[in-house]
Every structure is written in C-alpha cells, then in structure tokens.
Automatic annotation (TrEMBL):
CDD domains with a match to the protein in the record: AAT_like
Protein source organism: Deinandra increscens subsp. villosa
Taxonomic superkingdom: Eukaryota
Coiled-coil intervals, chain numbering: none
InterPro entries cross-referenced by the UniProt entry: Alliinase_C (IPR006948), Alliinase_N_sf (IPR037029), Ethylene_sulfur-biosynth (IPR050478), PyrdxlP-dep_Trfase (IPR015424), PyrdxlP-dep_Trfase_major (IPR015421), PyrdxlP-dep_Trfase_small (IPR015422)
Keyword Cell inner membrane: no
A Pfam cross-reference name: Alliinase_C
Needed cofactors: pyridoxal 5'-phosphate
One example GO MF annotation: transaminase activity
Protein name (database record): Alliinase C-terminal domain-containing protein
Length: 441
C-alpha cells in the first residue's frame, strides 16, 4: 500500500485555500525569483511536522541539498525574471488559508444577481421566524440551503431541522453543548481520527466547561465511556473521505462536511447523518460573511444547539443571512435549467481552478524530489458527471530524503508552516487504519 506511505516519517500540511500555485512557482522559477512572480499582498499559507524520533543535526546537508536541486531547476528554466533586490526579507506565510481564490468569479457576477441592498429600518428585530426551532433563522436562507443541497445532491434536508450559526465553528461548539449531558459523571469524551482538523482540540477545551473534553485520536480511544466522534469528510488535512472508526455502542457522531462540494470531491450520494455541518466559507468562498449551517435530525438536539447560540450571541446577523441566501440562490440558479445564458457555473469555475492548482503543485513536487503527495483514486461525481480524484483546498505533504524536521526546514527558508503535531500526527499510523479512514461518505 505504497500510496499510504506519505503518513510515515516526515509529514507536512499545506493549506492552499488562497493560492495553490505557489509551490509550482517555487520549483519552476527557483527560490530567488519567487517574489517577482507574485503580488506582495498574496500571502499564502503552509503547515508542517515530522514523525522521526531521531533528531539529527542535518542543517548544512539539507541546505546544500536544496541549493543543488534549485540550481538544477534553474538550469532548465528559460529566462527567469530578475528578483526584487529585497527578496531575502520576504516571509511566505502558509500557516492559514483564505478563500479569496473565488473572488474573480464573484466580481464577474452582475449586481442584480448577488448584490443585497437593505434600508436602515429593515432587520431590526431579533426574531426571524418564531415558529421555527431556530427562531433567528431567516426563511429565505432555509429555502436557499435546501435548494442548493437538492441541486448538488450532497445532503438530505427533507424532514430535518436547519440551525444557522456564525460559521461552522460556532455550530461545532453548539453541537458539543447539545450532545453533552449536563449531569454526566464526567466530561464527555470528544475524539477524531488522526490526522484531524487542528482546531478541534482547541475549540473543544477552550472554555473548560466540564461538559466535554478532548480525548484525542479516535483510533486510540478504547474507553468504555460515552463519546462524541467527529467525522470530517473530505478530511482536513489529508483530503480523504471518511467514516467513523470507534464504532462503540456509546458513541454519538458529528459529521463535518465543509468540503463535501463538487469542486473538492466527487459527490457520490446525498449525506444522511444525524448532525451535518456546512459553511459558506468552503462552499462558495464567502468566509467573511461568517455563515454556517447544521442539518439536524433530532428536534431536541436542534433546540439545544439553538439555545447555545442564543446564549452565546443572541442569534446570527440577519444581514449576513440574507446576503448568504442571495449567493446560494445565485449558485443554484447557475446550475439549473433556468440558466439560459450559457455562462460558466460556480462549480465549473471552482472545479477547474482546483484542478489546475493541483496539477501545478504535483508538477512542483515531482520536480523537487524533496516532497511527496497522497494519491486519490478517481470516482465519478453524480452532480457533474466528471471522473476525478479529490481536489482538497490543502495538501498533506511528506518531506522525503534527508529532511528530518519539515517545519524547521521550511522555516529556515522563510516559509512559515504548521506542524503535523497539531493534527495529531506525531507518530506512525498503521496502514489498516488508513484503509478504513478512506472509505466514502
């Protein structure tokens, strides 16, 4: 199972929500010509770590290796542009992502399609729909969410309750609150299979509420106690589709499906789980609107999640909800038969963008011989009819050869990264576990 070898020894995560083509530029133009190819404001984001227990002092050897490989690349590159004189002062921040890569698509949309204008007297009340479990949820957003999921075919919404939140992070915390018994004998265990989303441990334990606690890697959880398992699919950071791994009789599942959209992964079946989390930042790129939504089967759980948000922020901005509804409707319109203009749909645009950037980063990795990337088996998307492998908004990158510490290695070259230890990837993970983690949604 050679395609799983990237999990072993040294592993690096590259978050490429802002610009996946950077790595290709590094290999194509060389280290010293990098900044001449990019706008100074395009600060990109990286994460990194190693699993090797033997820490050898290989700084000089590593730098000589990179210098030699860079010279080889430059010899094959025709007429590289001159680098700015202050290129040595540039620091490339690849530690966080920002989905501005979709900005050009939305700039091309007409004002009538996506612009929202509100008067000062509108949206004054706290309430949106008092008959709804989530009383601050705008009816227009409910319709837009249900319609888009039906058009894409990525989630079941019929007979479910929708809860809106200020991004999916707030909804995650609301779900933990709703699922943790207030009179339990101890905090509820919260687990996720490594490598897991790096913010899960922080968000779980941040308030130290006593209701729940981070219990680590789901593969290692063997307590005969109640637990909540987070299933992120496609998974951040490695990009693979997943199912739950603990499979205990005392477990409750939360499915984080932020990336289950056709620009990132083939849509295979409509997801049908008890609690499903989505967010506008990943689906359409509107991170600044701070809108996420949960699709919840159980009415009581939806009510408790609503209570958490009520106590936390007294609801969610109506202005953001109305803007999000307008954008989601525009996406659905572009995919439906009512779109007779022949214009490119959002999912066509975003798929092509992701495919091109993954092509470039794979070319870069193949040239440098210093890194390796995971391989994703192609599958046919029920939404688009395309057959392709995963196209994550990040890359799980392994350092090869003589590099012992990916994060330190890249930092010496002024590339800021996030170590794999933040994703629970501090030790080798057996191949059998990864076979299970790659099963489809």
């Amino acid at each position: 199972m050679a395609d799983l070898g990237f999990f072993l020894k040294n592993v690096l995560v590259v978050s490429l929500a802002m610009n996946l083509g950077l790595i290709w530029k590094i290999s194509h133009d060389g280290e010293k010509t990098l900044t001449s190819k990019w706008k100074w404001g395009d600060m990109l984001h990286f994460h990194g770590c190693c699993f090797n227990d033997q820490k050898n002092n290989r700084v000089e050897e590593e730098e000589l290796l990179v210098s030699k490989r860079t010279e080889e690349i430059l010899e094959t590159t025709s007429s590289p542009a001159a680098a700015p004189e202050d290129w040595e002062s540039v620091v490339i921040n690849l530690d966080h992502g920002d989905p501005t890569m979709y900005e050009n698509f939305w700039k091309q949309k007409g004002d009538q399609e996506t612009t929202v204008v509100t008067s000062s007297w509108q949206h004054i009340s706290y309430f949106s729909d008092v008959k709804n479990v989530c009383w601050f949820l705008e009816p227009g957003l409910v319709s837009a969410i249900a319609r888009l999921h039906k058009v894409v075919g990525n989630a079941v919404t019929e007979g479910r309750h929708i809860v809106v939140g200020t991004g999916s992070s707030q909804l995650y915390q609301a779900a933990l609150y709703a699922l943790s018994p207030p009179n339990g004998s101890g905090p509820m265990n919260v687990v996720s299979a490594a490598p897991f989303y790096s913010s899960y441990p922080l968000m779980t334990d941040y308030l130290k509420s006593g209701l729940h606690k981070w219990a680590g890697d789901a593969y290692e959880f063997n307590k005969q106690e109640p637990y909540i398992e987070l299933v992120t699919s496609p998974n951040n950071p490695d990009g693979f589709t997943r199912q739950d791994v603990v499979k205990g009789d005392k477990g409750i599942l939360i499915h984080d499906l932020a990336y289950y959209w056709p620009q990132y992964t083939p849509i295979l079946v409509p997801a049908d789980y008890d609690i499903m989390l989505f967010t506008a930042s990943k689906s359409t790129g509107h991170a600044g609107s701070r809108i996420g939504w949960a699709i919840v089967k159980d009415r009581e759980i939806a009510k408790k999640m609503t209570t958490f948000i009520e106590i936390n922020t007294i609801g969610v901005s109506k202005d953001s909800q109305i803007r999000a509804a307008k954008i989601l409707q525009a996406v659905s319109d572009s995919c439906g038969q009512e779109n007779q203009k022949g214009a490119e749909t959002f999912f066509d645009y975003s798929y092509k963008l992701m495919a091109e950037r993954w092509k470039k980063i794979r070319e870069a990795v193949n040239k440098t011989e210093l890194f390796s990337l995971p391989s994703f088996p192609p599958e046919t998307c029920s939404f688009s009819g395309r057959t392709f492998g995963q196209l994550p908004a990040f890359a799980w990158l392994k350092c090869e050869g003589e590099v012992d510490d990916c994060e330190s290695f890249l930092r010496r070259h002024k590339i800021l990264t996030r170590g794999g230890k933040h994703f629970g990837a501090e030790h080798e993970i057996c191949e059998d576990q990864h076979v299970e983690s790659r099963e489809r949604v």
